[in-house]
Structure formats: structure tokens, C-alpha cells
């Protein structure tokens, strides 16, 4: 129980830096001095830092590991960098170590193979409760790279394609799986490049976009990954969840909001086609309507009537849809045009 209380405090203090003492008092029905005993012990042991005077007291986790270095990007060196520069400093449960190794080497490999830059900056911070990685290059920038290579109209469309998965601009040597799986293994996964940020949070299993154009243009690509030190899942759980028996990956999770340029509504068939592109590479599609209030008829018709007619084996699952969106989907599905027999025979 004692270890459990300390553990609770240390895993929740980031979320509630000023009120963690009261929170733990309530949760465990303990007096303030009793909780402060655990807090002070965590401070003595070097896990926690107290700041501010008694009334404005707040707490934060102390960094147990703090690595900062710049490396030269040579082909196929990502495993050596992990093995000699990062791994020896970390003490983590085996499942988390394996996830960190996977994410770190995949993202460093990306900087080596795709960025065009000669060096990358690496930051690793570990506290009692979590470990986080920053990998940054100043190369071409991930969204620009994809936009150019795939001939897309905007970096945002590049982000839409990337979030579907199975996207590579270097098919001779790559499969387009690095970001798809890595982003699903960590609690938080962020890409910043150009004026866009892509955030993924594991607990909500959702993708969303934050436009950071007001912060100005960021040269190159920054990857941020964070995982809790008490995460219970394994690397293979994530592979198994998204792969079928043939080891092709089967599900794509598409944030519909990404098909909309700023100031636009989702109304047109061309917007729908942007979403539908490459769907035939997947065996299951999850359409996430987070941050979308309504959709137009042409858009809905293209996705929910015409596509399923042509691809009856690819189920489309809808999540986070408003009642208006659900009504529109039902409407287009039930509103199939009556095809004259003469035309039917033609096809
Ligand atoms: N640091 C980067 N700089 C520029 N472009 C990048 C960077 N990282 C990724 N990309 C682009 O994003 C695409 C997808 O990356 P991802 O890691 O998912 O797949 P991949 O590296 O192509 O294949 P795999 O990881 O399976 O070997 C890459 O093909 C590349 O175009
Ligand atoms: Mg990769």
C-alpha cells in the first residue's frame, strides 16, 4: 500500500502539480501530514521537486536521466546510437525498453534516410513516471518531403496521407510502417514540421491536428515521443492489433478533419476522394469525425454510397460523428438512385 501511494503521487503529479496532496488525501482517505510524509520521502529519494512557498507550493518530477547530444547521420547507424549512447543510461521495464528501442531507432532511421540533413539532435529525459524522446533534424521536413514526392497540394494533405499509414517515399528500401506503428506504441507522439503539428495521444486513440502557423515555420522535422514507465502493453500487442495473419496491416484510422483546408467545409466529392485514396490497401477503415460538425451530400455520397458499392469488402467504421453527420450518412445510403435497366446492362 505504501509503495502504491508513492507511486500514485509520482504518476499523477504532472497532471495536478498544485493539488496532488489534496487529491491523494481524498483518494486514500489520509490526513495531510500522512500524505506529506509520502511526498517528502519522494523528495528525499530524488524523484520529486517542491517549488514555491507553502501556499503556492507545487511539485514536479525530477529528471533522473537527461541526455542531450548531436550526432552525425550515417547510414544504418541507428542501432549503434541506441546501444552505445542511449540504452546504457536507462533503467526501464523490459516491455517499455523494447518500445523505446523500436521508436528511437525507427525515428532516427527516418532522419538518416529521409531528411537529407547531416546531423540530428537527440534529447532523452526520464523521470520516475515517464520517459520522453526528442529527435530533431533540420532537413527538408517530413510534410514537405511527402508533398513533393507524392505530388500533393499542401503539407496538410501530406499529413492526411501519412496518418493513414503505409506511406513511403522510398519504396525500394522502406515499407511505410515506421511512423504508423511507433505512433501507436507511445502515450504521446508528436511530429512538428513546417507550420504543422501532428499529435497523437494513446489513451484516446485518436489523431488530431493543431495548426501552429502562428509559431512560425520550423525547419526540418521534430519527433517527440513519451511513454509512461508503468505502461502495461508490449510492442507486439500493437503489431498484432493492426496486422492480420498475413502480416499486412489491416486497419487505417483516418482523421477526416485533415481533408479540410482552413476555412473550408467538407462538401465536395474531390475532398472525399482525397480521403478515399489508397483505401484499397487496407482491410478495415476507421473514419474519425473528431472536430467535424457536418458534411455535405456530395462528400457523404462519395464515401458512404459510391465507395462501398465498388469495394464491398472494405468495411468503413464511423467514430465521433455528430447526429447531423449520422443523419447525412443514413440519407445518402438510403438514397441510391434508381438505375434504369438499360444502363444496368451496359455496366
Ligand atoms: N525526418 C524526416 N525527414 C523527411 N521526411 C521524413 C522524415 N521522416 C519520415 N519522412 C517521410 O515520411 C515517410 C513515412 O515515414 P515512415 O517511417 O512511416 O515510413 P518509411 O521510413 O518510408 O518506411 P519504414 O519506416 O517502414 O522503413 C517517409 O517515407 C518519408 O517520406
Ligand atoms: Mg521509417
Structure description:
- With 347 residues, the protein is an alpha+beta fold.
- It contains 13 helices and twelve strands.
- The radius of gyration is 24 Å and the shape is globular.
- Bound molecules: adenosine-5'-triphosphate and magnesium ion (MG).
Chain-wise SSE layout:
Layout: H1 2-12, H2 20-28, H3 32-44, E1 48-51, E2 58-61, E3 65-72, H4 78-86, H5 94-114, E4 119-126, E5 130-137, H6 142-150, H7 155-164, H8 178-185, E6 188-194, E7 196-201, E8 206-211, E9 218-228, H9 235-242, E10 251-255, H10 269-276, E11 284-288, H11 297-310, E12 316-319, H12 323-334, H13 341-346
Parallel strand pairs: 10-11, 11-12
Antiparallel strand pairs: 1-2, 3-4, 4-5, 5-9, 6-7, 6-9, 7-8
Helix pairs in contact: 1-2, 1-3, 2-3, 4-5, 5-8, 6-7, 10-11, 11-12
The structure holds adenosine-5'-triphosphate (ATP) and magnesium ion.
Strand ordering within the main sheet: 3-4-5-9-6-7-8
Estimate the helix proportion, in percent: 25-40%
Q: Give me the secondary-structure category.
A: alpha+beta
Number of domains: 3
For the largest beta-sheet, the strand count, sense and barrel status come to:
7 strands, antiparallel
Shape: globular
Portion in beta strands: 15-25%
Low-confidence stretches: none
Total count of helical runs of at least 4 residues: 13
**Rg estimate, integer Å:** 24 Å
The counted number of beta strands is 12
Known CATH architecture of the largest domain: 2-Layer Sandwich
Mean residue pLDDT: 90
Ligands: adenosine-5'-triphosphate, magnesium ion
Order of helices and strands: HHHEEEHHEEHHHEEEEHEHEHEHH
CATH superfamily of the largest domain: Histidine kinase-like ATPase, C-terminal domain
CATH topology (fold) name of the largest domain: Heat Shock Protein 90
What is the distance, rounded to the nearest whole angstrom, between the alpha carbons of the first and last residues? 71 Å
According to CATH, what is the class of the largest domain? Answer: Alpha Beta
Amino acid at each position: 500500500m505504501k509503495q502504491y501511494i508513492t507511486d500514485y503521487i509520482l504518476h499523477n503529479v504532472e497532471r495536478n502539480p498544485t493539488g496532488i496532496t489534496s487529491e491523494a488525501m481524498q483518494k486514500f482517505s489520509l490526513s495531510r501530514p500522512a500524505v506529506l510524509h509520502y511526498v517528502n520521502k519522494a523528495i528525499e529519494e530524488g524523484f520529486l521537486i517542491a517549488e514555491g512557498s507553502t501556499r503556492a507550493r507545487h511539485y514536479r518530477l525530477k529528471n533522473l536521466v537527461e541526455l542531450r547530444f548531436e550526432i552525425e547521420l550515417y547510414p544504418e547507424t541507428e542501432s549503434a546510437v541506441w546501444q552505445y549512447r542511449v540504452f546504457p543510461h536507462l533503467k526501464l521495464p523490459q516491455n517499455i525498453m523494447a518500445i523505446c528501442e523500436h521508436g528511437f531507432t525507427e525515428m532516427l532511421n527516418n532522419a538518416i534516410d529521409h531528411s537529407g540533413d547531416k546531423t540530428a539532435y537527440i534529447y532523452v529525459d526520464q523521470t520516475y513516471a515517464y520517459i520522453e524522446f526528442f529527435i530533431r533534424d533540420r532537413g527538408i521536413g517530413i510534410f514537405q518531403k511527402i508533398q513533393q514526392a507524392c505530388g500533393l497540394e499542401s503539407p496538410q494533405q501530406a499529413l492526411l496521407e501519412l496518418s493513414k499509414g503505409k506511406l513511403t517515399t522510398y519504396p525500394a528500401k522502406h515499407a511505410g510502417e515506421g511512423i504508423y506503428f511507433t505512433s501507436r506504441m507511445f502515450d504521446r507522439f508528436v511530429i512538428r514540421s513546417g507550420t504543422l503539428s501532428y499529435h497523437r495521444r494513446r489513451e484516446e486513440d485518436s489523431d488530431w491536428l493543431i495548426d501552429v502557423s502562428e509559431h512560425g515555420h520550423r525547419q526540418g522535422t521534430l519527433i517527440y515521443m513519451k511513454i509512461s514507465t508503468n505502461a502495461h502493453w508490449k510492442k507486439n500487442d500493437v503489431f498484432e492489433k493492426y496486422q492480420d495473419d498475413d502480416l499486412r496491416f489491416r486497419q487505417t484510422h483516418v482523421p477526416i478533419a485533415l481533408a479540410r483546408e482552413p476555412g473550408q467545409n467538407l462538401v465536395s466529392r474531390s475532398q472525399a476522394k482525397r480521403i478515399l485514396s489508397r483505401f484499397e490497401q487496407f482491410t478495415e477503415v476507421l473514419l474519425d469525425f473528431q472536430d467535424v460538425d457536418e458534411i455535405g451530400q456530395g462528400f457523404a455520397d462519395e464515401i458512404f454510397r459510391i465507395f462501398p458499392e465498388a469495394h464491398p469488402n472494405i468495411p468503413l467504421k464511423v467514430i465521433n460523428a455528430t447526429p447531423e453527420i449520422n443523419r447525412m450518412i443514413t440519407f445518402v445510403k438510403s438514397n441510391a438512385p434508381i438505375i434504369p435497366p438499360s444502363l444496368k446492362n451496359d455496366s
